[in-house]
Write a structure and sequence with these properties.
With 216 residues, the protein is mostly helical. The chain is 68% helix and 3% strand. A two-stranded antiparallel sheet has the order 1-2. It binds adenosine-5'-diphosphate and magnesium ion.
């Protein structure tokens, strides 16, 4: 499959869509963080993504510039654990995009995987520790599988978002062993992880941006 999946226009509508969803779900994300953290995840993410959104009208020619700008903005404005983690995701996406103006399905899957590997390296977390990686990593596996089986980028990303939702729900019975939630020990069990919730929105909005670009 070599059809273009992502270009600067679609990536911009992804980032705008993510900013919009984070704004809509700000209270929910904060409530999730109130249960096992410090009640700021929605506030943090909304501050960062609204800062990113205000820059979107100035559209660069290539993907790397857009993603680098996004990553740097998130690092400087989100704060908490999630700022550097989401920032790293977008900086790795920028590096993986090289000088491309478009990415095809496999290229997009490779770039997103590089972003998730960046989160893993930065946060030193693995699957099953009740973090955003529990939504992201199963989604990357589903994405690779869907791309390999010849699905369109939009269809493949829909499958990835579905896997992210399943992974997000699977954080409920998990014991947190990384981040602030780990301070709670056993009391972290029984709650959905806020970062798994926001990162599911990240992939859902990418699926939506790709879907509206190919009319599916
Ligand atoms: P803080 O915990 O500093 O208040 P946020 O509330 O914005 O930051 O973000 C919390 C989320 O960050 C958690 O729900 C979790 O998904 C994610 N997180 C925390 N530590 C890590 C880590 N080491 N690796 C991956 N994700 C992490
Ligand atoms: Mg917090």
């Amino acid at each position: 499959m070599s059809e273009a999946a992502l270009n600067v226009e679609i990536a911009s509508s992804w980032l705008q869509g993510f900013a919009d969803r984070v704004a809509e779900e700000k209270d929910w994300l904060t409530e999730l963080d109130a249960a096992i953290g410090d009640a700021d995840h929605g506030i943090n993410m909304n501050r960062g993504m609204s800062a990113v959104a205000t820059e979107l009208s100035d559209r660069p020619a290539d993907l790397a510039t857009l993603f680098k700008r996004t990553g740097m903005k998130l690092v400087s404005s989100v704060g908490g654990a999630s700022g550097p983690l989401y920032g790293t995701f977008f900086l790795r996406l920028a590096a993986a995009s090289g000088d491309a103006t478009t990415l095809d399905g496999p290229g997009l899957a490779t770039a997103l995987r590089a972003g998730c590997d960046g989160i893993k390296a930065r946060g030193k977390a693995e699957l099953g520790e009740k973090t955003m990686l529990d939504a992201l990593l199963p989604a990357m596996d589903a994405l690779d599988e869907a791309v390999a089986s010849g699905q369109s980028p939009a269809e493949a990303m829909k499958a990835a978002a579905e896997a992210a939702r399943t992974g997000r729900e699977a954080t409920i019975p998990m014991l947190a062993t990384k981040g602030r939630a780990s301070y709670l020990g056993e009391r972290s069990i029984g709650h959905l992880d806020p970062g798994a919730a926001s990162s599911t929105l990240l992939l859902e909005t990418l699926a939506a941006a790709l879907g509206s670009s190919d009319g599916s």
